[in-house]
Amino acid sequence: MRLVIVESPAKAKTIERYLPDDCKVEATMGHIIDLPKSKLGVDIENDFEPQYQIIRGKGPTVKQIKSQAAKAEEVILATDPDREGEAISYHLANYLGMDLNEKNRIEFHEITKDAVQNAMNNKRTVDMNLVDAQQARRVVDRLVGYQISPILWRKLRKGLSAGRVQSVATRIIVDRENEIRNFIAEEYHLIFATLRKPSTKETFTSQLTKMNGKKIEISTTEDARAILDELNTLDFIVAGVKNGTKRKKSAPAFTTSTLQQDANRKLGFTSKRTMSIAQQLYEGVNIKGKGHTGLVTYIRTDSVRISDVAKNAGIAYIAQNFGKEYIGGVKSSKAKGNVQDAHEAIRPTDVFLTPQMLQNDLTKEQLRLYTLIHNRFVASLMSDAKYDTMSVDISAGDYTFHATGQSLTFPGYLKVYNFDDEEDSKLNIPKLDEGEKLDRVKLEDQQKFTQPPPRYNEASLVKALEEQGIGRPSTYASTISTIQQRDYVELEDKKFKPTDLGEAVTKLMVENFTDIVDLKFTAQMEEKLDDIADGDVKWKEVIYDFHEDLNKYLKEADNIERIKIPDEETDEVCEKCGRKMVIKTSRFGTKFLACPGYPECKNTKSIEEKTGVQCPECGNDILVRKSKKGKVFYGCKGYPECNFVSWYRPTDKLCPQCGNMLFLPNGKSKKLFCTSEGCGYKES
């Protein structure tokens, strides 16, 4: 018997189908050995040696793997093809007493028969450069978290945490908020002319762009009115017409980062949700007639490379479904210095397995994400979209107006994927001749004010982190989740806003741990980790240099002044002492009401979020609640006496057909619906 060790049970089920009969598969359920949670776990005095131990709760898993390994003729390590997976293989090999010089490690980037069998025929040794890069990241993050966090507890509040990436991500959001606060709006004016071609009566709109051949800027209402008065006396003459064509290329297939961005923008998924669903698609889903099948390639990648086999399959798919004129070339992008090109881009393992074929096999969310991945891959191989364009300059005395239009003549990749969610504009300018006089229909002055930069949403934050070289795309989901759980940032209209706590933590970090929250310093650390993975640098040298910098700050920690963050007062009155209660945050990030009279008065309450709707069964308020897994649901305040509960948001509207309550569905749909059996009523 040969023992093959993978990370997840779902992956185990999928690859079992492709392995020889003498192979047995066991799953580690992620890491089995790590640094201890109860202490630093890094021996600073002994060359920063990590003090690894079996993770609490993983004892039975480790025992089962060791038992099976003892019976096996050969143990094959098939953990994920990245630094974390390599580290798991390394720890397994050490624990099981395997020879690290033997070829007992396999890797595959998609769970298909060919990929798995090819991996079995091309075993290699554990890549210690990748292991060392993972160890370096783990130790550096541990040094930051376990040595700075206690300082935050003493100087700010218990239960806070610092992190090499999370602190920088928080700073990015805080810096943007300060930009918005300090922004001073400036007035400006835009002037538009609605013009008409006399012979056809067709109208179009143009914008004033130049005066005496130079760009015009109008800053006051008085200036705008003076220009309008003058324009009302002038003739509008076509000064130039330019017809042309434009081509628009599709983007490459997804990387981890671009998948998170588009899934957030188009589907409303958080990065955490995207990665969770994508992992399911990668590990395998039970497909009728096919069994457990991996549907997409490995989801942690920053490469847009496509294999020749996948490219040829994609081209054949396009020719069959759209025609040869829709075949384009593989789209690439400029590689950043730290791109890991070992993986391909994220793509379907079988492009001919269309989303339509999987409608009955996937959950709604799995199907939506698979559709996104499938369509993006197909689009990346399709021809350009083509447009006819027209631009017109119109003169009125010393002033020049400009108008443009375009018309889609060949959709190309737009047949399957629209990256900008923009509607195809039409040529809304009539055919014009140079020297032609136009009728002036209307002149309009639009007063505008410059706008501050917008707050980050999840997609734009991911993009900013990637552009700045902060962290890795595979860690963005956990980073964003952490800074929300720690109450450093909150979502307001789906945009990230720093809390008072987040701003206080960032202020302390910027003033006292400058390099740790410096964007360039953090990006340079990522480059050094890449250098370790490439074998160019020794991992403990990087840790030594980093700790020297960190130690300088730690020695000055006692001089940091304690910061008092005022608690947010509410209108809720403490029934025990009459004080107005304040909002506190638990060490787990849960907000609750507490009496400010502590320790004399220790009264606390959970925070109730009311829906404004009364329970149809008892008349009490219906509250917004959360399950143990964090999922929002709606329940009666009178629980447990009243057990009314719903996953859908209740409304105060009643169904005109049956008289029962109408609900608002989850997601983007705004159609109210009735849940009564057999009713089926819906309304916008």
Characterization of this structure:
The chain is α+β, with helices and mostly antiparallel strands. The strands form nine sheets. Strands 8-9-15-14-11-16 form a six-stranded antiparallel beta barrel. Strands 19-20-21-22 form a four-stranded antiparallel beta sheet, with no helix packed on it. Helix 3 (83-95) crosses helix 5 (128-155) and helix 6 (166-182) packs across helix 13.
Quick description:
This protein is an alpha+beta fold.
Task: Estimate the mean pLDDT confidence.
Answer: 91
Share of residues in strands: 15-25%
How are the strands ordered across the major sheet? 8-9-15-14-11-16
> What characterizes the major β-sheet?
6 strands, antiparallel, barrel
How much helix is in the residues?
25-40%
N→C terminal distance: 61 Å
The Rg value, from CA coordinates, equals 31 Å
Blueprint of the fold:
Layout: E1 2-6, H1 9-16, E2 23-27, E3 33-34, E4 42-43, E5 49-50, E6 53-54, H2 59-71, E7 74-77, H3 83-95, H4 113-120, H5 128-155, H6 166-182, E8 187-196, E9 203-211, E10 214-215, H7 221-231, E11 236-248, H8 256-267, H9 271-283, E12 285-287, E13 291-293, H10 308-321, H11 364-380, E14 385-396, E15 399-410, E16 437-449, H12 458-468, H13 473-485, E17 489-492, E18 495-498, H14 500-512, H15 519-533, H16 539-555, E19 568-573, E20 580-585, E21 591-594, E22 604-606, E23 609-614, E24 621-626, E25 632-636, E26 645-646, E27 649-654, E28 661-664, E29 672-674, E30 682-683
